[in-house]
Specification:
mainly alpha, Rossmann fold, Arc Repressor Mutant, subunit A, five-stranded parallel beta sheet, three-stranded antiparallel beta sheet, 10 strands
Length: 974
């Protein structure tokens, strides 16, 4: 970052803003400043001043730059910036980054585990933020990212997250962006509109400021600069500092402006063609390197602003000595600079240099140089590893070789997709598709689309994916084979399934079958069948489960015959989902088969899907989330956004069931923001259902309705998630309002809904809380309870707790009180991880137990009353109190200190004052001593002791003292 001008001209206001932003960052109030302006207006120079100020104040500085030269390199500016941390000698391996360290391996080679991590941009953004904060050391941090208009999509994805989350950190992000249309400029303007960043627009210098700049460069005063020189520089630069510098340099180099003993003076007429002055000036400087030097740099310009010497030498045929001689001369002339990785790579100092070189090349010459460059790359790197494939593709495109360029872009895009660089993959494959369409090569174009469609789905660009429908129509009549065309329609159908667009997906399946109808192909038909099975399972209809199972079995059989392991895995996964309702062991066996097949054929994505479904089954069976969490980690490594957010949705619902409140709401809201933007409708619906359930479990009907209204907008009617909105949300909300009739009505609606739209989600209440309510109402007895208990769904842990409570009620009514009490204990053990459901169950069965004379209904009601009071559910709290009064049990007010009473004592009705006396009994104190300690009368103590003995059932005062030692002392000591 070196400049000819010794001082900054005309930027006092901008410097003041940057100084304040730096000061704020040092005090923990970070932020974002975008420096926006046309090329050469002085963005980098102003950023350099900010770097100097930051270093002078003791702040840490990280710098990175974007580039469009050569192949796309995901995260280039971030990697360049963060890598400088490892050159300071500071120990970084012990930083408190937790699970975010492996995520950073995508940016930092030192931490790359080789596992191919491909987390979402949100997760990667959070990882970068945590690294910046962890290395701050209380001094503040400046992160400078230049030329964001050239940034790759992945970098912008991370920056979008940083922009929204730097406010409460000690980090200032300073980014430079050109005013030309770009995604980076959209990001900057959007951030300014919502108040997340400052946007500083740099305007050209005024005429007097140009005079100050020129005088500073010449080491004189503005008055001593020849008027003709100032006039030309002002007209030729239009106030651009860069153009002023370049034009001035060209004038000096051409001898038009010379320094004499009495100061600077002109020789001849300094005026010229303003529009081409810069290009001519740059070219004159290059021509001083000789004809061979001009040829060399022209070839380098065709390779890009950043170019490799080995390729340049092979395409020009120049010898080592001449190459290095011209290269050093170019560095001395400030035309090129060394770049990374050294020593092979160099870059032009300014992009106008490249543009100037192009002005003296004819289109034919550029195409010829590009062709020679591509041949050199392919000769030096025959397999085109890493970035060489994209570089060769770009050169073939520049040479006008659309077909060959399209093939190379397809391969580069396929590799990027496999590596998880989804943004780059989409960009490369879009280029491939466009070139191959122009080349009229339907076979290769189909190959590009086969990779482009899943890439668009994984990156969430469903709109672009469905735009390609018209392209498929064009391929229909282009002589493409039936099987190849059917595969494309099937790929698009899978995109539609991912997006939750059943109608679009089924139309693509119909088209695929129509194509195959004239030319049957067992392998292609298997792929069609398995995708159709997934769509059938989600498409509303009374026979959707049976239809999906039939299609999946057909696909599995065909996959075995034609050796299609990926199709087989998908088929077994769906069959396992359907089988889960009737036989958990059968479901697990199918998933294990899919898992084994994926491992044997090295299909990591399919292995991840099977592992996710196994984890889901474990969660349903016993509430165990370990398998889901492991699957989520694997999904992060592979870059499967769909699975990550699917698991996130399940974990949110698990948090609802476990009584999580704020942390669950926060997780739901954060994930919803992402999946809404991606257009992942199934994930959106599941999260909205979970959010509605969260509000319902708190008895907040209005908040529940708000979530369910949005659920409906995301095609909720007929979806797999719809029954859960009735059972897990609406029915529970009615129970929290003490409206059992409404709850039962909602659950009857679930049964009706399942009749014409069966679901593979099994927590909607028909096999759990609905059974308990029917038993309590006298509408169900032992036969119904046993029938539900015998089902796989009734055995799932969430449902099982209610099924067991229903059994206890039935046993109590049959006069089997001891057995009923035993079943209550079993139900409470199952419900231990679900506090809201546990206490709701106690509240529901207590009155029946009291009527039939079994169990401990008073203790259960007191326990439930305390829980719902603490969680601010007034209807249930009041109902518990009313029931206690009807049973003749005292109802105590909630005073300060109630939370400190152990639950075992609180459920007995022991008050705060009684508990205080109970604590002191552990020291065997007399009533008088206890009275003195509590500042109450001995008579009052006597009443408390009598109440304690009555409530605890203690045989004597000595027995009560012993109980105090056992129960009270541990709490007192903590």
């Amino acid at each position: 970052m070196r400049f000819q001008a010794p001082s900054l001209i005309g930027r006092d206001a901008q410097l003041g803003l940057l100084d304040q932003a730096l000061a704020d960052a040092r005090h923990g109030r970070g932020g974002v400043v975008f420096l926006v302006g046309e090329a050469g207006v002085g963005k980098s120079r102003l950023a350099a001043e900010a770097v100097g100020s930051a270093l002078g104040a003791g702040m840490g500085v990280l710098r990175g730059r974007s580039s469009t030269t050569g192949p796309a390199v995901p995260f280039r500016p971030l990697t360049e910036a963060l890598m400088s941390l490892f050159r300071t000698g500071e120990p970084l391996d012990e930083l408190p980054l937790g699970p975010y360290r492996p995520v950073l391996g995508r940016l930092i080679p030192d931490w790359n585990t080789g596992a191919g991590d491909s987390s979402s941009m949100v997760i990667l953004g959070e990882a970068v933020l945590r690294l910046l904060m962890a290395t701050d050391h209380g001094r503040g941090r400046l992160l400078v990212l230049e030329d964001l208009h050239d940034a790759d999509p992945e970098t912008l994805g991370v920056l979008e997250y940083l922009v929204d989350n730097l406010e409460y950190s000690p980090v200032l992000l300073l980014a430079t962006v050109r005013t030309d249309f770009s995604d980076a400029l959209d990001l900057a303007q959007s951030a300014r509109r919502r108040g997340a960043a400052s946007l500083v627009e740099l305007s050209p210098l005024t005429r007097p400021e140009v005079g100050e700049l020129v005088a500073g460069q010449l080491g004189t005063t503005p008055d001593d600069v020849p008027a003709a020189v100032l006039e030309r520089l002002w007209e030729g630069s239009a106030g651009s500092p860069y153009l002023v510098e370049e034009l001035l340099q060209s004038m000096i180099g051409a001898g038009t402006l010379v320094q004499a003993l009495d100061g600077w003076r002109t020789v001849g007429d300094p005026r010229g063609d303003v529009s081409s002055a810069l290009a001519r000036g740059i070219l004159r400087r290059i021509e001083r390197l000789g004809a061979e030097g001009l040829t060399l740099l022209s070839a380098a310009a065709v390779l890009g602003r950043r170019f490799p010497l080995t390729v340049l030498q092979r395409m020009t045929g120049i010898d080592d000595r001449a190459l290095l001689s011209h290269l050093h001369a170019g560095v001395a002339a400030r035309l090129v600079v060394p770049d990374e990785p050294a020593p092979d790579w160099y870059s032009f100092r300014h992009s106008p240099t490249v543009e100037a070189l192009f002005t003296q090349l004819t289109p034919g010459q550029r195409a010829d140089l590009a062709r020679r460059g591509a041949e050199a790359v392919e000769k030096l790197h025959p397999l085109l590893p890493g970035e060489w494939c994209a570089l060769a593709a770009g050169l073939r495109s520049e040479a006008g070789e659309d077909a060959e360029a399209g093939k190379l872009f397809t391969e580069a895009g396929r590799r990027a997709l496999a590596a998880g660089a989804l943004g780059s993959a989409v960009t490369l494959l879009n280029q491939a598709e466009a070139l191959l369409a122009r080349a009229g090569d339907p076979q290769e174009r189909a190959g590009a689309l086969e990779h482009l469609l899943p890439a668009l789905a994984e990156s969430g660009d469903f709109h672009r994916a469905f735009e390609l429908v018209e392209h498929l129509h064009a391929l229909d009549s282009a002589g493409l084979g039936a099987s190849r065309l059917a595969v494309l329609h099937t790929r698009l159908a899978k995109v539609a399934h991912t997006a939750g667009r059943w109608g679009d997906g089924n139309r693509q399946i119909d088209r695929a079958r129509e194509v195959l109808g004239t030319s049957p192909d067992g392998a292609a038909s298997a792929s069609v069948d398995v995708t159709a099975a997934y769509l059938a399972l989600d498409t509303p209809g009374s026979d959707r489960t049976q239809h999906a199972e039939k299609l999946a079995r057909s696909a599995a059989e065909a996959a075995e015959r034609h050796a299609l392991p990926s199709v087989a895995c998908q088929a077994w996964e769906l069959l396992a989902t359907v089988a889960r309702e009737r036989d958990p062991d059968e479901s697990r066996a199918m998933l294990q088969k899919a898992l084994t097949t994926a491992e044997r054929h090295q299909l990591p994505l399919r292995r991840m899907y099977a592992a996710t479904r196994i984890g889901g089954n474990d969660w349903l069976a016993e509430g165990d989330t370990a398998g889901l969490l492991a699957a989520r980690e694997e999904a992060l490594r592979l870059g499967s956004i769909n699975i990550v957010h699917t698991v996130d949705g399940i974990l949110v619902l698990d948090g609802v069931m476990r009584g999580g409140r704020e942390e669950t709401r926060e997780a739901a809201t954060e994930t919803l923001t992402i999946v809404r933007r991606l257009g992942l409708a199934p994930a959106v619906r599941y999260l909205l259902m979970s959010l509605a359930s969260l509000e319902a479990h708190q008895g907040d009907r209005q908040a529940m309705r708000t979530a369910l209204d949005e659920f409906a907008e995301w095609e909720g009617a007929g979806s797999q998630e719809e029954p859960l909105t009735l059972g897990m949300a609406r029915a529970f909300c009615a129970l929290m309002e003490e409206d059992r009739d409404l709850a039962r009505a909602e659950l009857r609606a679930v049964s009706a809904l399942e009749g014409h739209n069966p679901s593979t989600y099994h927590l909607s209440g028909t096999h759990g809380v609905g059974l308990l309510l029917d038993v309590l109402a006298g509408d169900a007895g032992r036969a119904r309870q046993q029938a539900v208990a015998a089902t796989a769904v009734g055995g799932m842990r969430w449902n099982r707790q209610f099924v067991t409570l229903a059994e206890a009620v039935v046993l109590g009514r049959e006069g089997k009180g001891e057995r009923a009490t035993e079943r209550i204990g079993t139900a409470l053990r199952d419900a231990a991880v679900y506090p809201a459901a546990l206490h709701l169950g106690l509240r529901l069965v207590a009155e029946s137990a009291h009527e039939d004379g079994w169990g401990e209904p008073v203790a259960w009601l007191r326990r439930a009353e305390h829980h719902f009071h603490e969680n601010r559910v007034p209807a249930v709290t009041n109902a518990c109190r009313a029931a206690l009064r009807r049973m003749g049990a005292p109802v105590h007010q909630h005073r300060s200190g109630t939370d400190g009473i152990p639950e075992e004592l609180r459920t007995l009705g022991i008050t705060v004052r009684e508990y205080e006396a109970f604590l002191l009994l552990a020291d065997r104190l007399s009533n008088k001593d206890i009275a003195d300690r509590l500042f109450i009368s001995p008579r009052t103590v006597e009443k408390h002791i009598a109440g304690l003995m009555n409530k605890t059932g203690a045989a004597s005062r000595a027995d009560l003292c012993a109980r105090s030692v056992r129960l009270a002392r541990p709490w007192r000591e903590t």
